[in-house]
Amino acid sequence: MTKREEKKIMSLQDLPGVGEKTIEKLRSAGYIDLMSVATASVKELAEIVGEQTAFRIIEAARNALDIGFETAADVYERRKNVSRLTTGSKALDNLLGGGIETQAVTEFHGGFGCGKTQVGFQLAVNVQLPPEQGGLEGACLFIDTESTFRPERIKELAEAVGLDPRKALENIIYARAYNSDHQMLLVEKAAEIIKEKNIKLLIIDSVTSHFRAEYTGRGELAERQQKLNRHLHALQRLADVFNLAVYITNQVMARPDVLFGDPTAPVGGHVLGHFSTHRVYVRKAKGNTRIARVIDSPYLPEGEAIFAITPQGIRDVEE
Ligand code: GTP
Ligand code: MG
């Protein structure tokens, strides 16, 4: 293909050999624009349009968008768009390098009652704040797998930061995931709503419970792992493409590191390839205080922070 022909590709319709039917299939799987196709892996798209077409359109989309190899300067430019979302606790923000970051997946794991869900609620409220107050002036997409979402609590947290509680609730788009396939489907279809509603934070609470419940047999572990990795990959792609913060929770009592495969391992053909998954382990401490520890992060230094779950929400521990 000549340079001139590449330039003409402006949207999905312009991709070589792609007809209405294929476009419809792509759209309904959440691939609504060139960027989402360009950043997909052949394997993912092959399930939708077949391997040959997948290969061809990914390549064409990448050429059209001029992605593939990029210079360190380009990476630097893209990283400049990374913003941070406050957790409500300065200590916890500092541990995270200034808050939960966009273009990344941040996972909190720990035992029951350690505060994973409460942190999610707080982030769902804080994301709506203006940047001066540590927010991203955007909405939240909340995928709930355990039916533990509590709008009453959201109202409390919103009031405590000076937001209109009604508006705060309206800015949280809620979806209940009924099983792991449904959960994956919700994420695959999220692109459209993310654009439409100015979503800046995607939460899955918890990301693992359905997978755990459904894949119990010994022989099923590999399959579970594969699906989870694909799911994480989809989340990372959304984070990259839409400059989103992604917050996921994972209930674990011990040995937190056996559940996920290495999410930083190169997955076939993704081009933005800078998986930046931050993993934080939270444990209970005295009273309403909790201790968070960075377990595994591409660039955050290891360390600990202490925070409190107060009636107003996540806060620093008062000295
Ligand atoms: P699992 O989902 O069971 O794994 O737990 P989790 O890590 O999600 O814990 P969660 O975020 O639900 O935290 C529960 C803790 O938060 C409770 O033990 C309470 O201490 C605190 N908490 C929950 N709701 C409220 C509330 O409305 N007000 C206050 N002040 N604290 C709350
Ligand atoms: Mg919870």
Question: Summed up, what is this model?
Answer:
The chain has 14 helices and eleven strands. The strands form two sheets. It has a nine-stranded mixed beta sheet, sandwiched between helices. A two-stranded antiparallel ribbon has the order 1-2. With 319 residues, the protein is an alpha/beta fold.
Care to describe what's here?
The chain is an alpha/beta fold and 319 residues long. It has two domains: 3-65, 5' to 3' exonuclease, C-terminal subdomain (DNA polymerase, domain 1), CATH 1.10.150; 79-316, P-loop containing nucleotide triphosphate hydrolases (Rossmann fold, 3-Layer(aba) Sandwich), CATH 3.40.50.300. It is 40% helix and 20% strand. The protein contains 14 helices and eleven strands. The chain has helices at residues 3-7, 20-28, 34-38, 42-49, 51-65, 72-80, 90-95, 116-126, 151-160, 165-170, 180-188, 190-196, 209-214, 221-241; strands at 84-85, 100-101, 104-110, 139-144, 172-176, 199-205, 245-251, 277-284, 289-296, 304-310, 313-316. It has a nine-stranded mixed sheet, sandwiched between helices. Guanosine-5'-triphosphate (GTP) is lined by residues 110, 112-118, 148, 153, 251, 288, 309-311.
